Amino acid sequence: xxxxxxxNSAHANHQIRTIADLLDSCRKSSDFVSEEINGxxxxxxxxxxxxxxKTLHQLILPIVQNSNHNHSLYKLKSNLPIDDSKITDNPDxxxxxxxxGHVLILPGKESSEALLTAAPLIEKRPIGQPEVEYSVxxxxxxxxxxxxxxxxxxxKRMPTRKLIIQExxxxxxxxxxxxxxxxxxxxxxxxxxxILTHIKNIQFDQIADSSFILQLISNNSTSPFPQMMDxxxxxxxxxxxxxxxxxxxxxxxxxxxxxxxxxIEFFSAFExxxxxxxxxxxxxxxxxxxxxxxxxxxxxxxxxxxxxxxxIPSNLLDPLIASRSGIPFPPIIEAIxxxxxxxxxxxxxxxxxxxxxxxxxxxxxxxxxxAAVEAGLxxxxxxxxxxxxxxxxFTTPIYQMGNTIRLIRFPFIVCGQLWGIxxxxxxxxxxxxxxxxxxxxxxxxxAPVYPARWRDLKDSLFRLPFRMQGKKPQxxxxxxxxxxxxxxxxxxxxxxxx
Length: 498
Description:
Elements: H1 2-15, H2 19-26, E1 32-36, E2 43-47, H3 53-65, H4 73-79, E3 85-88, H5 91-98, E4 102-106, E5 114-118, H6 147-157, E6 163-170, E7 176-183, H7 189-200, H8 210-217, E8 229-231, H9 234-243, E9 246-250, E10 256-259, H10 277-307, H11 314-324, H12 331-351, H13 354-374, H14 380-393, H15 399-437, E11 439-440, E12 443-444
Antiparallel strand pairs: 1-2, 2-4, 3-5, 4-5, 6-7, 7-9, 8-10, 9-10, 11-12
Helix pairs in contact: 2-5, 6-9, 10-14, 10-15, 12-13, 12-14, 12-15
């Protein structure tokens, strides 16, 4: 069946040998316009849904209408006040430009050449505030779906000729523009070449978003851990590119991809750099603790109540027994019911309109939680633990990593039921070994913890002052490792000096 379909497609493409054949094929679409220009031998052809009517009627048609029969395409091209114009006799090239919003001008029905001039209608929303990575302080600009606007936001922040943008097209149908951005003297050339090669080798029909690129070029596509960072903040991208990372932009996506990246960077909010370093370091440590608590808290509850009663302090034993009296389910069923309820509330809140979603999340959580405890389906202690675990998972700044944290909680709960605390440690060891085996385009995923790179610890688990970060991350293998000249050591003034 697939072979027959490919043969039919090849046969259809084989029939388009001339520009006239191409126009006959395009006329099958109701938004394709073919018009003869009165008083001239020229005709114009375009897709009205992607053509700018103002450009067409004010810049193109008056020039064509004032042309006489003796004007050639080259003369007409020189008269048009549009730089992006070209003459071609290749129907494939003409098709590529037509579907991008160009107007095709034909001097006669029998002509083998046509003039293509740009008049694309570009619809885009204005630049707004970040919605996923919102920050109280700092810039309030976020990427939009137009790749040219996104590249403009980066160029504005990095006005240097060393900022290199290499563009290619991906997708046999969509032919989506994909731009690879890096700083010439900061990025390792091997990293840029590897990512660009991976993107050019993509075989897929439709690229709708940057997440398609992420899944298609990741080293381990079956891993739940993202191996490229997804961000909507131009300030974050420009800062990471200055350190030596590679950014990938996809036309139609309001997010950029950054690589190589590490696991710890997913728990670092860019707002940390706008705060005093002691405050930012404390917030970052709180975030890491919250993620750890979110992953293991429910599984430890199940393990302790199933196998390890002796670990419960005597002061807590009575309230725990009282809360579980009358519960008809074992701890594992009780935990899974509550965890799935939390996930249902999350999905309902995310898929509904914003105001309704907020109401569903608040009212649904209160009503269902209260009703479950009063009906004796779950204990109030577990309800508090699951609610705190869900709250802790929201501290993850990067949305994709937040989804991963939501997912891996369930294997921990199952292992806690099977083998108790030993099972929790077994599951933890499995994920540690998996993370150790991951890499982000050849760079260790868990650096700088392993392999240990003490210099990079200055901006990982915590953040030290900017004056102590004179070198770029070691794992970037940057040709120029220095970010700035280190300041001279200041001599402590004598107590008598003024």
